[in-house]
TrEMBL record:
InterPro entries with a match to the protein in the record: ExoRNase_PH_dom1, ExoRNase_PH_dom2, ExoRNase_PH_dom2_sf, Exosome_comp_Rrp42_subfam, PNPase/RNase_PH_dom_sf, Ribosomal_Su5_D2-typ_SF, Rrp43
Keywords: Cytoplasm, Exosome, Nucleus, RNA-binding, rRNA processing
Family as reported in the entry's similarity comment: Belongs to the RNase PH family.
Entry GO MF terms: mRNA 3'-UTR AU-rich region binding
A Pfam family hit: RNase_PH_C
The protein, known as: Ribosomal RNA-processing protein 43
GO biological process terms held by the UniProt record: exonucleolytic trimming to generate mature 3'-end of 5.8S rRNA from tricistronic rRNA transcript (SSU-rRNA, 5.8S rRNA, LSU-rRNA); nuclear mRNA surveillance; nuclear polyadenylation-dependent rRNA catabolic process; rRNA catabolic process; TRAMP-dependent tRNA surveillance pathway; U1 snRNA 3'-end processing; U4 snRNA 3'-end processing; U5 snRNA 3'-end processing
A GO cellular component entry from the record: cytoplasmic exosome (RNase complex)
Stretches assigned to the Exoribonuclease phosphorolytic domain: 47-182, 210-272
Protein's organism: Rhizopogon vesiculosus
Domain of life: Eukaryota
Localization (cell): Cytoplasm; Nucleus, Nucleolus
Primary location: cytoplasm
């Protein structure tokens, strides 16, 4: 008498099925988790990923920082160069932030020139740093009309898992705090600027702040710190920037409009998160 046995699916089989379903039906996959009040990575809606900040990791830069936000990792280096100021702003230096999203950080990015996403994020980072007044550009003046400092704040994402803006802004602020400039002297007779190798001084940052990003699904579910899987499925992407005193600096919203109640809820969460991130700096 022959007998037959039924093999139960293994955990590996279940995981493979879940991965296939996630690829074929990402929105439904996410909605099933949302219905259970959890997210695919196990977090609750208002839970943030762990963040770590390390400064001074690039010895050849004038300032540097490495930030890990979950699995998103960004390294930032600040390089100072001497330049001539603009004619209409003779006493102001330059702050030039930039973000690179290379192909090595995620399969979604291809080799070649900067992607549109990287350019948009760089523009937003520039707006956040320059318009917020984090650093007085007049403090970068060496000699009015002749010589000023240009600070190139270059960031590279070495692993991408969503929310690159928050991670990059945090890395840039940490790198600027870590930056020191050599004492520079302009000689009017020779028209040259000389720098001391021994005497260096830190930047005087005038404002401390942090950004917090959210994704809104179906106008009712607000997800803090969205991952790379969650980001493209959101109906609304919202970023809130507040300073260390809890004052609102700016909001940036893309997608269909959200209610005033949801916006105020996000601002309240952002203030709590900003105080947590400031302690890391």
């Amino acid at each position: 008498m022959s007998s037959s046995s039924i093999t139960k699916p293994s955990a590996a089989d279940d995981t493979l099925r879940a991965q296939i379903f996630q690829r074929l039906h990402p929105r439904v996959y996410l909605e099933r988790f949302i219905a259970e009040k959890f997210r695919p990575d196990g977090r609750t809606f208002d839970e943030w990923r762990k963040v770590s900040v390390n400064v001074g990791s690039i010895s050849t830069a004038d300032g540097s920082a490495l930030v890990r936000m979950g699995d998103t990792t960004v390294v930032c280096g600040v390089k100072a160069e001497i330049a001539e100021p603009d004619l209409d702003l003779p006493e102001q230096g330059f702050l030039v932030p930039n973000l690179d999203l290379p192909a090595i950080c995620s399969p979604k990015f291809k080799p070649g020139p900067p992607t549109e996403e990287a350019q948009v994020l760089s523009d937003r980072l520039n707006e956040a740093l320059v318009t917020s007044g984090v650093l007085s550009l007049s403090s970068l003046c060496i000699h009015p009309g002749k010589a000023v400092w240009t600070l190139y704040v270059d960031s590279t994402c070495i692993n991408y898992d969503g929310n690159a803006f928050d991670a990059t802004l945090l890395a840039m602020l940490a790198a600027l705090r870590n930056t020191t400039l050599p004492k520079a002297t302009y000689d009017e007779e020779t028209g040259r600027t000389t720098c001391s190798r021994k005497n260096r001084s830190p930047l005087q940052l005038e404002r401390h702040f942090a950004s917090t990003s959210f994704g809104v699904l179906e106008m009712s579910h607000v997800l803090s710190d969205p991952t790379a899987f969650e980001e493209p499925l959101m109906d609304v992407a919202l970023t809130v920037i507040v300073d260390d005193r809890g004052q609102l600096i700016s909001t940036n919203e893309s997608g269909t409009g959200i209610s005033q109640e949801t916006l105020l809820q996000c601002i309240s969460r952002a203030k709590e998160r900003a105080s947590q991130l400031q302690r890391l700096l």
